Inverse folding.
């Protein structure tokens, strides 16, 4: 992993922010976080030159870091405020976690591949981000720390896992991609006193959510 953030990296990052604005991202706290966080720190050095392209890259264990647009869109859909208690399913590289932590939420992040958690915790720790890491099946949520103001699922689920909806606070929000194969629809599910509301936000591509309330391995 690389640990220098040169003017070249910063320049490429500000071009990425401009690209995200052109693609429809408007939340300034999300754009500021993406403009600040060196994405190349989360990638194998072989991808350094492409780190600020709107692309996914392999991160080991057959998994990927999400496209910056996907990270920005999911973050925006969460309607975040500093201090909210957030659960992330799928720590992966740790890049999405860095964006959430930069916005100032209390973050709990769970990943099923321990080596990914270890690598993410190392880089996030060096960058000074504080959060709580767990290794396990996030399709069950994380009942020990529930309830949550927000839950973000960064892998594709066959349906909204019931435990995740249960572990939301009243007015809590779950952002989750749902669908099979290589394409999912992004949903924002809000738990209101009057019932659950569901809004759709277009097509995305994720690796699968594997687990008891996800796809079978
Ligand atoms: N947020 C990540 C990032 O910024 O790099 C995205 C990583 S990738 C698109 C999704 C991750 O979800 C993978 O690392 C995968 O191992 C993880 N995953 C899949 N099923 C899971 C489950 N049931 N519990 C926890 N993590 C899971």
């Amino acid at each position: 992993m690389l640990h220098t953030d040169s003017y070249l990296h910063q320049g490429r990052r500000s071009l990425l922010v401009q690209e995200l604005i052109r693609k429809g991202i408007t939340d300034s706290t999300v754009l500021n976080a993406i403009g600040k966080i060196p994405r190349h720190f989360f990638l194998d050095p072989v991808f350094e030159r492409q780190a600020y392209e709107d692309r996914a890259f392999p991160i080991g264990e057959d998994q990927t870091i999400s496209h910056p647009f996907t990270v920005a869109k999911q973050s925006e859909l969460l309607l975040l405020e500093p201090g909210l208690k957030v659960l992330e399913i799928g720590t992966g590289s740790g890049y999405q976690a860095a964006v959430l932590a930069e916005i100032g939420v209390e973050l709990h992040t769970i990943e099923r591949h321990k080596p990914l958690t270890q690598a993410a915790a190392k880089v996030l720790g060096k960058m000074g981000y504080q959060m709580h890491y767990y290794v396990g099946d996030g399709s069950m949520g994380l009942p020990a720390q529930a309830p949550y103001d927000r839950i973000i699922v960064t892998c594709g689920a066959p349906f909204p896992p019931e435990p995740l909806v249960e572990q939301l606070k009243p007015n809590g929000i779950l952002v989750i991609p749902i669908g099979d194969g290589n394409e999912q629809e992004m949903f924002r599910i809000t738990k209101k006193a009057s019932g659950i509301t569901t809004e759709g936000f277009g097509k995305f591509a994720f690796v699968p959510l594997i687990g008891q309330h996800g796809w079978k391995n």
Observations:
- Residues 7-204 form a domain with the Rossmann fold fold (CATH 3.40.50.150).
- The longest helix spans residues 7-22.
- The first strand starts at residue 57 and ends at 60.
- Residues 34 and 99 are 7 Å apart (CA to CA).
